[in-house]
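Hello forum,

I keep getting stuck at the same step: I have a sequence, I want structure tokens, and every attempt I make locally crashes halfway through. Rather than fight my setup again tonight, could one of you with a working pipeline run this one for me? It's a single chain of 261 residues.
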Amino acid sequence: MRLSKLLTIGAIGTVCFTLYAWNSPPEASQPYHGGNDSWLPVGSNFLFAGSGKCVQCHGSDPEGIASTTVKGEDVNVVDAWRSTMMANSAKDPFWKAKVSHETTVNPDLTVEIEDKCTSCHAPLGNFNAEFIKQEFYSMGELENDSLGLDGVSCLACHQQSPDGLGTQFSGHLNYETDAIAYGQYESPLASPMIQFAQYTPVLGPHMEESEVCAACHTLITGTVDLNGELTGDEFVEQATYHEWLNSVYSKRLAKAVICQA
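Reply #2:
Ran it on my machine without issues. Output:
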């Protein structure tokens, strides 16, 4: 029997979503400069806006009023997010090295591998490319795409449609094409977000469901033989969502402890 090897067309480790600026997007992806000389993209492409758009309201408040505890502790969500694996998913050197290794071993499948890996690690770039009818999104494009490099940014989750959640995997995501951002609160004050970010906040109960994580945290990849030919078989490379689903933390078995918790 001929031995086969796994073609890893996704990333090792945590997987998730990004964007690609095509021709002349609605706004240039200019950086937001924080106090530590780091930056977040404030521009938009055809489908998403960068995390820098969220800083004014969801970042650190110099007046110490918003996003501050009664003890005066700064607990703003932007700074909490920007140092995470999610925020750095498209910049992670280990992930980039793994993608490079897979495309070196399987050069004939380079476009498929890079497009699959970026669907979760750089969703704002990958799904913008899909939105404008681009066939693939490459690692080369990602290197020059500030929204793609934003990683699993704010709208990578908050612009997800509830359609198909928990039933679609391996980077198959559904995004709203209108400028709306789902949240877990009823009747949010919409005017500030509409004014500053050009997004409308709406209630989305799925933001408090683990299913919103399922599409990227379940990765099923194809396999190839020693000649680099697809075998037609599949391999469950990662099944984090299903591990949760079948654990005592799932609401199907016990009191729910969701991924977001």
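Confidence is low (pLDDT under 50) at residues 1-37. If your local run keeps crashing, start a new thread with the error log.
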